[in-house]
Amino acid sequence: MQAQIGALQAAQEEMKTSMMEEMKKMRSEFTGGASVSPAAATGASPLKQAESRPTPQGAQRKISKRIAQIAGNSVALTPEEVAKQQKIALTNMVHQHLDTLLGVKDWGTVAKTIKPLTDDEVDSYVQGGDNGLRCTPQNFRIDFLRPWKRFSYNKEARAVFLNNFMDTLEGMAHNIPHHMITKEHVGQILDVYMDSCRRKYRKSLERLEAEEGMKTAKDEEERAKHRQRQQELQRQDDEQRRTAAKGSRRATLYESRAITLVLFELTRHAVLFSRMGPLHMSDDETDGEEVQHSPIYRIIIAAWQSEALRNFLWVLDRLWRMYWAKPENQRRKPGNHPRVRLLRPDSKVELGEAPPGLWRNCYDEAWLKTLRPYERERLGIIDQDYDFTIPQPLLDALAEVERRRAEREALLAARA
Questions:
Q1: DSSP 212-253
Q2: In angstroms, rounded to a whole number, what is the distance separating the alpha carbons of residues 126 and 132?
Q3: DSSP conformational letter for 361
Q4: Which of the 8 DSSP states describes residue 336?
Q5: Contact criterion met (CB below 8 Å) for 285 and 270
Q6: How far apart are CA 226 and CA 144, in angstroms?
Q7: Is residue 337 left, alpha or beta, with left meaning phi > 0 and alpha meaning psi from -120 to 50?
Q8: Could you tell me how far CA 51 lies from the centroid of its own chain?
Q9: Alpha-carbon span 171 to 358, nearest angstrom
Q10: Secondary structure of residue 292 in the 3-state scheme
């Protein structure tokens, strides 16, 4: 067994010199290179190919960067990526400038500090004159309840913002090209952000009305109604946070599995991953009522995944944890440990999002029987079995490493 572990270490040594070549090979397979043609594999029409979902470009690029970092190399940004970064930078500047002019530090409580225009204020603005209501950079205000592009005061507020932003940008150091800094482009960014601001304002206003309703309620029944509304708003906020956290965990899981294929020279399986994305990974939840350090997560089974596919993905997770614990010829990276995901007898089962164009043994047979004929046809299942094989020496070495880890943990637990 010691010889098997030594062979694994020797293979990892050789990997340093071949990593970039493997990365190129994997990128080719992820993007549907000539070695594997989806049309040839599935016999699908071009329309069917268009319906499939390949690996998202953002996820692919992130994986390539991580692989290059592990190999000690850097990946130059493409012109498209540079332009995207510049657009993101400009978008962030527009958002920050609007928040600054409005004096907003917390959009959750914005309704407490920014009030809609009263009827008297609207009349004052319409009448104009020296004493009329005006929107200026020093007295900047937006009516979030009236139309953004049709209400005359908001139209003036938009013009004031654009002029002030352009003037401010002239005195700032930045790397955004001049062709991107136009009133038209900045206005488009502002309009998109305003949709989000107006939603957040209405949510803040609902919360404020519920709070004030609790204070002014005349009887217990009215207080209960406002209390129920507060609880519903909190539930919606919690659900949004949980949804965002799920997406983040799935992206991390997909990324670690794809990197593992390269680290252990399993890139022939990249063709399988090219047809899946973070959305298709199974979910998980905290194992127990309280989050402990380091937390253990209970796997939530994706109903569409076959047992063979699940077992294959879980082996990749084990290999990633083994590599993370002791990367070859470098210090272990700081930060959170890879999540320990366990299958419990009471683990939940969710439908999940099934990707089209996989091999027949990737899908659970019982789940397939629940589909209507047209739903099964749209999957474009490859009428062959996928070979999930991982070299046995690698599996033996993994088992030995896990056995030693279990012995160390048992020894530490006995001493505690």
A1: HHHHH-SSHHHHHHHHHHHHHHHHHHHHHHHHHHHHHHHHHH
A2: 8
A3: G
A4: P
A5: no
A6: 23
A7: beta
A8: 22
A9: 55
A10: coil
Beta bridge partners of 299: 284
Q: Which two tokens stand for residue 111?
A: 């309704």
Cβ neighbours around 206 below 10 Å, total: 16
- At 213, list the tokens: 């309703």
Q: Residues 283, 236, 339, CA angle at the centre, nearest 5°? A: 25
Helices then strands (H, E): number in the chain? 15, 4
Tokens 């906020």 correspond to what residue?
237
Does a cis peptide bond (omega within 30 degrees of 0) precede residue 294?
yes
| Distant-in-sequence, close-in-space partners of 84: CB < 8 Å, separation ≥ 6 | none
Tokens of residue 193, six digits: 């952000």
pLDDT tens string, the chain, 416 residues long: the values are 455 445 544 544 444 444 445 444 544 544 444 333 333 333 333 223 333 344 455 666 666 666 666 655 666 777 887 888 889 999 999 999 999 999 999 998 899 999 999 988 888 888 876 667 889 999 999 999 999 999 999 999 999 999 999 999 887 878 888 888 899 999 999 999 999 999 999 889 888 887 777 666 666 777 677 677 777 777 877 787 777 777 788 888 888 888 888 888 888 898 888 888 888 887 765 545 544 545 677 777 888 999 999 899 989 988 988 887 765 555 555 556 666 676 666 667 777 888 999 999 999 999 999 999 998 999 999 999 999 999 999 999 888 888 888 888 788 888 86
What would the two tokens of residue 348 be? 């939940």
Q: How far is CA 213 from CA 102, 116, 366, in A?
A: 26, 19, 52
Cβ atoms 146, 154 nearer than 8 A = yes
CA distance 22 to 259: 11
Residue 56: closest CA among 302, 414, 355: 355
pTM (whole model) above 0.70: no
Residues 6+ apart with CB under 8 A from 77: 85
Structure tokens at 287: 């194992």
Three-state DSSP at 344 gives: coil
* Pair 164, 139: CB distance under 8 Å: no
Residues 6+ apart with CB under 8 A from 143: 116, 117, 151, 153, 154
Residue 223 contacts by C-beta under 8 Å, 6 or more apart in sequence?
Answer: 213, 214, 217
CA distance 13 to 16: 6
